[in-house]
Amino acid sequence: MEDGKFEYLSAVDGDPGNLIKGLQMVQSREGYVSDDAVKAVSEHFSTPVVEVEGVLGFYAQFKRVKPGKYRISMCDGTACHIKGSPLVREWLRQELGIDSGETTEDGMFSLETVACLGCCSLAPVISINGRVHARLTRKSLASILAKYRKEAAL
Amino acid sequence: MSKIAKLRVGMASCGIASGAEPVMEMLKASSGGIPVVAVGCLGHCYAEPMVEAVLNDGSSVIYRNVKPDKADMDNILSLGENGRFTIPPERAGRELVKVLALAGRVNPIDFDDYVANGGYDGLRRALSMTPGEVVNEVLVSGLRGRGGGGFPTGRKWSFLAAKKTDRKILVCNADEGDPGAFMDRSLMESVPHQVLEGMLTAAYATGATDLVIYCRAEYPMAIDHLRTAISQISEHHLDVLNGRRVTIAIKEGAGAFVCGEETALIASLEGKRGTPRFRPPFPTDSGYRGFPTMINNVETFGNVPVIMREGGAKYAETGTAGSKGTKLFALAGDLKYPGLVEVPMGITLGEIVFEIGGAERGCVKAVQTGGPSGGCIPAELFDTPVDYDSLKQLGAIMGSGGMIVVGNDRCMVETARYFLDFTHRESCGKCTFCRVGTTRMYETLCRIVDGRGRPEDIDFLTDIAPKIKAGALCGLGQTAPNPVLATLRFFRNEYEEHINRHLCRAMQCNSMVDMSIDPDVCVKCGLCRRNCPVQAIGPDFVIDPAACTRCNSCLDACPKKAIRRIARKEN
Ligand SMILES: Cc1cc2nc3c(=O)[nH]c(=O)nc-3n(C[C@H](O)[C@H](O)[C@H](O)COP(=O)(O)O)c2cc1C
Fold first, then answer.
1. Is B559 on the interface with A (CB under 8 A)?
2. How far is the CA of B253 from the centre of ligand 1 (A)?
3. Which fold has domain B412-501?
4. Could you tell me the sign of the dihedral formed by the alpha carbons of B500, B503, B504, B510, in that order?
5. Which H or E run contains B437?
6. Where are the alpha helices (DSSP H) in B276-348?
């Protein structure tokens, strides 16, 4: 482990009650929680590694693998489901060749399914790096992805 | 001199998702000094982005679906006639806006704006009373918890108030776990101070010392606005109650539905896996780290300033015998005007779906309330009044307020499968009935939807459902079978058709559907062939069912609407 990589954890009090907060901090900095991070968190909060893993596995927010440059969250809330999120997933699969939980080979896009983004009245929606794209159709989805590809190429 | 005093732009998450940011930028650049204010949610998501021009005389003109171009800016600044927004006439008079009165009117993160519009008047009135009188006021109002359970709020407050300890915890449940609901998000984004005012009132009434908001991490704007509001509260010393300063903290949830359940939420606050525990002891006796802890929902707190301002008795004039006040609903699904609505308790489902939501009569099959814990109510029963008890009788629940309109072309079996997919994944795994039972139900529903249903499947589902309900420890498992039981009750024929005839009347289940091009309507333009991602359409414009993934690309691309989903022929 690079020394000091997770030094920023010291901003959080080492009380085990703050374990989730610490993991959220790691996740937002690194985009995921690596094995090294698990060790660092375990030490900082004086909590055994198995318990850290237990908490990590329980909450959907935490990722154990490195996400893509653009993180796509596909909403599968009730409204989005009714309005065709299974189709959106199929379109994404065809456009990117990845399914939920996977990252494209070039590391550009990763895809995850989330329970609800709370934009139900604009269904179906996805968010890319936190930005919500609403009322998707196959066409609009393709042009959104193209825009991100172009942005990445700059 | 322009007649416009200021311009408001709806900049809640929905507004931004619809493109409000560039509108805001452009408006600022072209307004010629007229103040442009970011406000929260006006509730009319279908009309976003929205701009409201407030005139010098106090009246206002609202513009809908505004685009960031010069034409639209000029139109607004000259108060032009184009794109003016009016409430659809059939909707008028049915809504009753009290909790949301300031949403979309005030700048969410401007303390003075909130105060200038009556904000913190309720708290001030509370502070002029004794804590016991405040609890009583809430009891008199008849307010019941808006988080789904419907427990009388005043009674809960009295439990905590009765505890004689130094440290008491007050939690605002902002986990909003029902996938298909966004009332709490809108309230927190649009009027964070109102939620906090409710919490401070509760803290005064109950003697709570530690205030915590448990908010789902998927709501970054809500968290941001609450943070700002909390620091403004402490600047203005509004957090000094009963002679001592209370603490207010935000904890971000980490994406687990079960953490909306009270004991799981507490475990999560303690940094652990969010597994529920047996009750008693109830949280008001022993909760967060053993301290007495009271949990109320965001919307429940949002109602408190209304009650304190107008008085409990006046508040109780709205609603039905057992359900008082107004309720927020997040309307979505197959209807014309999706969005956030506030209606008096006792309004009928039909009024909400048809008059307010603008859904087309004859095209709606059911409405889903209560999310994964709730049920579907068929259109025939839409004269049911919306209150806690009537909905429960139908096997649905009021829930937190997600209301999804289900059109005729949606399959009820698939909808039930969707919810069980959700609950079996979200089951924390602690008790067998929930963990294994919901998984068995889910597998059975998958089989039916995949065209491999067996005649005994319906009996199996009917048999296992009450066992899960009786055997599960917490509300998740106790309610998880509801979507299946409700659809079996009202749409049993769809289950039977799937199993016995491999027919999905909604033409939704891919295993029972083929795509078909009507040769009489087709003009052979080739758009479908070009859009097909798997080259399943031949030069003769016939779709190869073996290659086709039924992704609807051709159907969406066809300019003549010649392509349909049809029942697959049995071979
Ligand atoms: C599985 C499950 C999930 C829940 N999710 C939520 C939620 O997201 N938000 C909420 O306010 N209440 C939720 N509840 C209800 C809470 O446990 C609790 O009853 C409520 O927050 C109490 O507040 P109230 O009395 O103001 O409604 C959930 C309950 C269960 C069993």
1. no
2. 14
3. de novo design (two linked rop proteins) (1.20.1440)
4. positive
5. helix B432-449
6. 298-310, 312-315
d(CA A17, CA A72): 30
The CA distances from residue A91 to A127, B233, B256, B424, B539, in Å, are: 15, 47, 27, 26, 23
- Amino acid B278 reads F
Interface of B with A in 187-226 (CB under 8 A): 217-220
Element (H, E) at B53: strand B51-55
Alpha carbons A92 and A67: distance in angstroms, whole number: 16
Q: What is the pLDDT of residues B257-277, one digit of tens each?
A: 999 999 999 999 999 999 999
Mutate to test the interface with B, among A44, A58, A71 (most CBs of B within 10 A): A58
- The residue-averaged pLDDT of B24-41 equals 95
Q: Which helix (H) or strand (E) holds B55?
A: strand B51-55
Tokens, residue B63: 């513009």
Closest CA to A20 of A5, A34, A30, A51: A51
Q: Are B14 and B41 in contact (CB under 8 A)?
A: yes
Lowest mean pLDDT among A115-119, B36-40, B151-155, B565-569: A115-119
Rounded CA-CA distance B389/A38 in Å is: 48
Q: Tell me, in angstroms, the distance from the centre of ligand 1 to residue B259's CA.
A: 9
Q: What is the pTM of this model?
A: 0.95
Question: What is the SS3 assignment for B241?
Answer: strand
Q: CATH says A70-153 is which class?
A: alpha beta
Asked whether this complex has an ipTM greater than 0.95, the answer is: no
pLDDT digits over B391-428, tens only? 999 888 888 999 999 999 999 999 999 999 999 999 99
For chain B, the structural domain boundaries read: 4-77, 111-314, 326-407, 412-501, 510-567
Ranges of beta strands (E only) in B182-288 are: 210-215, 240-241, 244-245, 247-252
CATH topology of domain B510-567: Alpha-Beta Plaits (3.30.70)
